[in-house]
Every structure is written in structure tokens, then in C-alpha cells.
Amino acid sequence: MTRDPRTLVWLASYPKAGNTWLRAFLANYFIDGTEPVSINEMQKISFGDSSAPAYAELGRCDPATLSPARIVALRERHLERVSHNGEINFVKTHNAHARIAGRWLIPARLTRAAVYLIRDPRDMVLSYADHFALDPAAAAAAFASAHNHVPANSRTVMQFLGDWSGHVKSWTRTRDFPVLVLRYEDLLSDAEACFERVLRLIGAPVDAGALAQATRFSSFEALAAQEAAVGFREKGAAQARFFRRGVSGQWRDGLAGDIVERITADHGGEMKRHGYLAR
């Protein structure tokens, strides 16, 4: 019987939209232990599409020196290897579903489905600015740039974001594979119901007790407590903490009016489409 190569389930988002929360849930659900899975061991259940060590091994070079064309060439080999790890392989990504140097970043031939996390960009700008040591105005400008990317660092190769609206469109409007769109705000309202939708998307059995426990183990309070106790390796270099507030609507008190106006002007169409502005 021919093996289906479409084993990748993408956990996709622009940075600071809830990707870590989703990965923590999946780790706790599928490992199903009596204690929460360490936030520094979520790779046990999900892979990173931009992991620097993988590219260093494949390219036999310093991954920080790789050109975009070389990254996407090595990327296909990396994802091929990941796709053979099991029948379902969760892959975290902040990349847009786009072409770079003539190659798709998200190859449909290896993809079973995707979960795309979206969040009010006015709230995201504040978290993004904190994570990348920017002021909010610079973060808002980055959200509007078609060339926005996350530079290479010791953990990852360059990640190709583009502007926020384009990123959202690239994932939510594709017909290349099934995509479940989850709003961060809906996770805040009923995380358990949202996570059940993820399990049903991938055809995993839904165990009510395990679902409730994994939701509890991956709550903002539980993740923040872990970070306070042992630290979190994905924290930005200049951040005081990765898990800051975990709320919606923080932009009302924390974002200047001119920046709010810019974000609305730049992204009003997609904000309306996903319920962040009145139609």
C-alpha cells in the first residue's frame, strides 16, 4: 500500500498570535502525563520548520549565512525528512504560505492540514514590539511591510513573514489544503472547545478527560508559572518574560491613537473579515 506523503499539520501564525499556546496544548494532550509537559520540551510533539540546527546539518554551513534561495532549497529536504517521522507531524511556522525564489514555503504535496491562529493586530503589535525589542510604531511599520521577516539567530534561519494582511490571506484563503482558522480571542473565551476542533481536524480521538487536563496544563497561568520557575528558551533576548499578559484589548490602554489609526488603515479589510472591526 502506497504511503500518503501528506503528513504535515502546520501550526501557523504571525508571531505573537498564540502558536505557543497551541503547541503546549498538543504536547500535553498527546503525551497525557500526570504533570504538565515542560515548555522547553514541546519539540517532543512538534517540529520547527526553521530550526537552525537542521539547516546547519543539511547545508554543512553556518545557517545564519544562508541566502533566501538557499534556505528554501534546504527547506524542502528538511520538510521531507520531517514528513517521514510519523503519520501526523505537527510543524510550527511563522512563514507565510508564499513562494520564495520560485519555491513554495509550505509544500502542498506534504501537507495534510493547517491550523492558522489569528489575533487582533492592535494587540499583536504590542507583544511583537516587546518580543523583538521595538517600539510600537516600528512594529506597526513592520506589520505593513511586504519584506518583513524574522532575521536568523542561533535558534532559527530567516523566516519570511511579509505584511500582516498578506500573511493572513495567504493562509486563510488557500485551497491547497484544509485550514482551520482559530482566533486568539475565541481561545480566551473557550479554549477547550477550540482545541477540540483541532483534534477533529486531524482525526484524532477526543478523550474528554485528557482534553480538559491538557487545556488546564496549557493555560496562560500554567505556562507563565513554568517560565517563572525555569525560564523559556523561546523568550526574546530583550524580553523580561515571554508570557506577558495573555489578554485581549490591551491595545486600548497601551497603544497610541496614531498607531491604532495606522493599523486600521493598513489592515482594515482583513480586520473586518475576521471580526476585529465593524463591517
Task: Lay out the secondary structure.
Layout: E1 8-13, H1 19-31, E2 46-48, H2 52-59, H3 68-83, E3 89-93, E4 99-100, E5 103-104, E6 111-118, H4 121-131, H5 136-143, E7 149-150, E8 159-160, H6 164-172, E9 179-183, H7 184-201, H8 208-217, H9 220-230, H10 251-254, H11 257-273
Parallel strand pairs: 1-3, 1-6, 2-3, 6-9
Antiparallel strand pairs: 4-5, 7-8
Characterization of this structure:
By secondary structure, this protein is an alpha/beta fold. The protein has one domain: Rossmann fold. It is built from 11 helices and 9 strands. It has helices spanning 19-31, 52-59, 68-83, 121-131, 136-143, 164-172, 184-201, 208-217, 220-230, 251-254, 257-273; strands at residues 8-13, 46-48, 89-93, 99-100, 103-104, 111-118, 149-150, 159-160, 179-183. The strands form 3 sheets. The chain has a 5-stranded parallel beta sheet with strand order 2-3-1-6-9, with helices on both faces. The chain has a two-stranded antiparallel sheet with strand order 4-5. The model has no long low-confidence stretch (mean pLDDT 91).
Keywords:
9 strands, 279 residues, alpha/beta, Rossmann fold, two-stranded antiparallel sheet
Series of H and E elements? EHEHHEEEEHHEEHEHHHHH
In which range does the helix fraction lie? 40-55%
Low-confidence region ranges: none
Binned strand content: 5-15%
CA-based gyration radius: 18 Å
End-to-end Cα distance, whole Å, is 50 Å
CATH topology: Rossmann fold
The CATH superfamily label reads P-loop containing nucleotide triphosphate hydrolases
Mean pLDDT: 91
> How do the strands of the widest beta sheet line up side by side?
2-3-1-6-9
Q: How many separate structural domains?
A: 1
Structural class comes to alpha/beta
**What count of helical segments does DSSP give?**
11
* Count of β-strands: 9
Shape: globular
If classified by CATH, what would the architecture be? 3-Layer(aba) Sandwich
- What does the main sheet amount to? 5 strands, parallel
* CATH hierarchy, class: Alpha Beta
